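User: Run a structure prediction on this.
Assistant: Running it now.
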Amino acid sequence: MTLPTGVEAVLTWAGATHRGRKRDINQDALLTAYPLFVVADGMGGHIGGEIASASTVDRLQRMVGKGPVTPEAIEKALVKAVRDIGDHPETTDEGTGTTVTGVYLDITDDDATWVALNIGDSRVYLQRDDALAQVTTDHSLVQELVAAGRLSPEEAENHPYGNVITRAVGPSEGAVPDYVRLDVRDGDRFVICSDGLTKELTDYGILHFLRLHADPAAAVDAMLEAALENGGRDNITIVVLDVAVPGQQAPEPSEARRATAETATAADTAEAVDTADAIDTAEAGESAAEGRRGSSPVGDPRQ
């Protein structure tokens, strides 16, 4: 499809989810339905977290099929997901809920943009100009301590309260994500993941596997295998999304450096906006990963 700027764009993606080596069930879920790519990490007693993440992904998928993806449409879908979670007979635990994190392509304005969205501590990363930046800001206790200067980022990595999040999609929570807009750039690669990946791989480790594997499915498989080898302490979900805009004029070097710096601090400085075919199942240990991969000209949701 032709972007509003008159150039063609093609997206390729792959995703996988795995229960890990320590968990009995997988409470993560993922959605790769152009133009929306999302990861949800459920929490709650018994199977409550699985229900919460699945309900959220289901409502978002229905939204994609009905019309344009906008902040308003996302929030309406999340409100419905909260109702579904609360009405389910097996979500009686007060802490039942889910993170929801991802990106969607907005082509409704004169210039196409990516919009990252986030509730919880799952993450969106962007690889641009061979550097990796975390786009979203975790809604977690340790992130609040880091922001307040009471913890260093290194101390936060192994903090005993690392699993405590401050926002989630659930009956006792709101359903309004944080949003960050990003320009569309040829060669960009997004990684959307649950904390099951970031507990086992550092940001440099994620960048390492992106550099090694140009194919999204190969990058997903390599990161998943490494996370399992490093312990696989939690459910692990990964989506890698590649952006190709072959006719896009490359920015001047100074502009590229400035754009990279802006992206690296986007979660702190960006203005909040108003609001596939299955891949081979990868087996590791006793669990199996479920994944999806796809490729689509931008604007063609049938792929």
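Residues 254-290, 299-303 have pLDDT under 50 and may be disordered.
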